[in-house]
Amino acid sequence: MRIGIVQSSPIFGKVEKNLRRLEELIGKGRADLWVLPELFATGYQFVSREDLERLAESIPNGNTTQALIDIAQARCCHIVAGIPEIAGESLYNTAVLVGPSGYLKRYRKIHLFFEEKRWFTPGDRPFPVIDIGIAKVGLMICFDHLFPEAARTLALRGAEIIAHPANLVMPIYAQLTMRVRALENGVFTATANRIGVEARVAQTLRFTGESQVISPRGKILARLSPDQEETKIIEIDPAKARDKTLNPYNDLIADRRPRLYIESFSD
């Protein structure tokens, strides 16, 4: 199968323009699964709850999700992308998965980063894995990368590819940890990060780019630049994520001893 990662520089609040730019970046590229950045159509640096409410959408009926469905149907592909979601009184930092059949799944970010804690409600549902036919795709978002339980949960639930929309501002961290997450779980990881700067308040945020696709053995299959809008399509074999053996004696999953991990806290 073919995985495409998109690295963009959204203009804050210009949703329609950012959606058009997404289509330009994808161009004529053909991928079975595209992974887009976190909050790819709105921008990231909200300054108030009202600021976020203005741009948040319902899922799956909001304009951005519907636009992604239109793209997926026209291109016969699947897309993972980050969208701010409004549901009742709550606001979530959400990733959606859509495909030719329409909306498939959402994941509400569990580990909120920095000032996200001021505006968003943390998710309270398990990390999801969705079978898209040619592969099983797990969803996590940005700062989730620093919590090994996130990727491990997805691997235990059968994920072969972890789709990881991100708005990273800490250089090196996720590029390194997502290699480790791929290696320790024997899965492919696809991180789609953004570039550019947002300075809507005194705190200037510089996004680090370097979106990447990593193999189940921790090999960098693709890594983009730190400061340019780009896309990259990589051919992978999801079956390689089903083999968890390191050698004739060791298996990444079968060798786990969860009972001892839990009991270690009672010593």
Keywords, separated by commas or semicolons:
24% helix, 267 residues, globular, alpha/beta, 30% strand, Nitrilase/N-carbamoyl-D-aminoacid amidohydrolase
Quick overview of this protein structure:
The protein has 267 residues and is an alpha/beta fold. Helix content is 24%, strand content 30%.
Structural summary, described in words:
46% of the residues are buried. The strands form 4 sheets. A 6-stranded mixed sheet has the order 5-4-3-2-1-14. Strands 6-7-8-9-12-13 form a 6-stranded mixed sheet, with helices on one face. It is built from 7 helices and 16 strands. It starts with a strand and ends with a helix. It has a single domain (2-266), classed as Carbon-nitrogen hydrolase (Nitrilase/N-carbamoyl-D-aminoacid amidohydrolase, 4-Layer Sandwich). Helix 5 (148-156) runs parallel beside helix 6. The chain is globular, with a radius of gyration of 18 Å. Strand 10 and strand 11 (205-208) form a beta hairpin. It is of the alpha/beta class and 267 residues long.
Mean model confidence by pLDDT: 97
| Count of distinct structural domains | 1
Give a count of the beta strands, DSSP E runs of length 2 or more: 16
Strand order of the largest sheet: 5-4-3-2-1-14
Gross morphology is globular
The CATH homology group name = Carbon-nitrogen hydrolase
End-to-end separation: 47 Å
Order of helices and strands: EHEHHEEEHEEHEHEEEEEEEEH
